C-alpha cells in the first residue's frame, strides 16, 4: 500500500510539472526598457515533445528569431538567443498570466515582464503599421537610372523622382550614412530616403537616390571602399543630375545622412561647382577622432559598461 501511494505521488508530481511547463505555451508580450526608449517584444512558445519558440521585435522588424536552450521546470522558464547574445530567466506568476524575469543582452541587464496575449492563434504574427509608408501610385514620376563613376569604373543604380509638370526644377542627391545601404536607406522596415524623396518631389524638387557601390543593382565592392571613394560616387551623381533636362543647374545640392553629411562637407570644401546647397542630416560636427571616441563610449554605456 505504501509503495502504491509513493507511485501515485510521483505520478501526480510528474503530471503537475508537465502542466506547469505547458502553461508557458502561447504568445506573450512585454516592453523592454532600454536607455531612452521602450521596445515592444513578442514571444511565442510551443511544446511538441520539446520546446520551440521565437522572439520578435515588431516595431523594428517582422522577422521572428528562433530561441535556443528553452527549458521549463515547474513555474520557471529559461531560454537563450545566441545570435543576438540574449539570455532570459523568468518565473510564472499571477494565475499563469505573467512571466516575471531578467533579460540580458551582453552586459546589459533589466527586468522584463511578459503578459500572456489572450485569444492569439498559434503561429500568428504581430506587426506594427509603419506611420511613414510610401507606396504607389505616386503623384510624380519615378525612373530607374544608372550612372558611372568613371574614376573607379563603378556603375551606380538608383531612382530619379521628378514633378510631372514641365519646367526647370531644383535638384538634390541623397547620400547615405555608414554601412552598406540601398537607395531607400532601408533599416528595420523603415525607408527614410524614400520618405524624404517623396516629400521633396511633391514640393517641386527633383531627387536622385542610389544604391551604394556593391549594394542592390550597383557594381563595385562596398567593403573595399573608403569615404573618399563614396565621395567620388556622389560626384558622379551630381554630374548625372547636371545632364537632366528638367534640372536647374544653378540649384543642385546635396543631402547627406551621417557619413553622407561628411561627404557633403568634403564636396563643399573642395568647392565642387555643382554643389549650390548642402543639408546635413546628423552629419559630424566635431573632429572625427574625437567623435569616434565619444560614439564608442556612448554605445558601451548603453550596454551597461
Description:
The chain is α+β, with helices and mostly antiparallel strands and 305 residues long. The chain has two domains: 24-116, Lipocalin; 141-296, Rossmann fold (3-Layer(aba) Sandwich), CATH 3.40.50. The chain has helices spanning 2-22, 192-202, 227-242, 259-269, 288-302, and strands spanning 26-34, 37-47, 51-56, 64-66, 68-73, 76-81, 86-93, 98-105, 108-116, 141-149, 154-162, 169-175, 206-210, 247-257, 277-281. Strands 4-3-2-1-9-8-7-6-5 form a nine-stranded antiparallel beta sheet, covered by helices on one side. A six-stranded mixed beta sheet has the order 10-11-13-12-14-15, sandwiched between helices. Helix 3 packs across helix 4.
Amino acid at each position: 500500500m505504501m509503495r502504491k501511494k509513493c507511485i501515485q505521488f510521483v505520478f501526480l508530481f510528474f503530471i503537475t510539472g508537465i502542466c506547469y511547463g505547458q502553461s508557458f505555451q502561447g504568445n506573450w508580450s512585454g516592453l523592454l526598457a532600454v536607455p531612452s526608449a521602450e521596445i515592444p517584444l513578442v514571444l511565442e512558445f510551443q511544446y511538441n515533445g520539446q520546446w520551440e519558440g521565437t522572439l520578435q521585435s515588431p516595431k523594428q522588424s517582422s522577422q521572428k528569431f528562433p530561441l535556443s536552450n528553452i527549458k521549463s521546470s515547474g513555474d520557471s522558464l529559461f531560454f537563450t538567443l545566441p545570435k543576438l547574445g540574449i539570455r532570459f530567466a523568468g518565473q510564472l506568476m499571477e494565475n499563469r498570466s505573467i512571466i516575471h524575469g531578467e533579460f540580458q543582452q551582453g552586459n546589459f541587464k533589466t527586468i522584463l515582464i511578459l503578459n500572456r496575449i489572450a485569444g492569439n492563434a498559434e503561429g500568428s504574427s504581430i506587426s506594427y503599421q509603419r506611420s511613414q509608408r510610401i507606396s504607389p501610385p505616386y503623384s510624380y514620376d519615378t525612373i530607374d537610372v544608372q550612372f558611372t563613376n568613371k574614376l573607379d569604373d563603378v556603375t551606380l543604380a538608383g531612382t530619379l523622382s521628378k514633378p510631372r509638370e514641365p519646367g526647370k526644377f531644383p535638384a538634390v542627391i541623397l547620400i547615405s550614412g555608414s554601412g552598406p545601404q540601398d537607395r531607400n536607406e532601408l533599416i528595420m522596415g523603415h525607408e527614410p530616403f524614400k520618405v524624404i524623396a517623396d516629400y521633396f518631389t511633391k514640393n517641386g524638387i527633383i531627387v536622385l537616390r542610389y544604391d551604394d557601390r556593391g549594394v542592390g543593382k550597383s557594381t563595385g565592392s562596398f567593403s573595399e571602399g573608403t569615404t573618399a571613394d563614396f565621395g567620388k560616387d556622389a560626384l558622379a551623381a551630381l554630374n548625372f543630375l547636371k545632364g537632366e533636362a528638367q534640372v536647374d543647374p544653378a540649384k543642385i545640392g546635396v543631402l547627406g545622412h551621417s557619413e553622407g553629411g561628411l561627404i557633403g562637407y568634403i564636396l563643399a570644401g573642395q568647392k565642387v561647382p555643382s554643389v549650390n546647397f548642402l543639408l546635413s542630416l546628423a552629419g559630424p560636427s566635431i573632429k572625427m577622432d574625437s567623435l569616434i571616441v565619444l560614439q564608442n563610449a556612448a554605445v558601451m554605456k548603453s550596454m551597461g559598461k
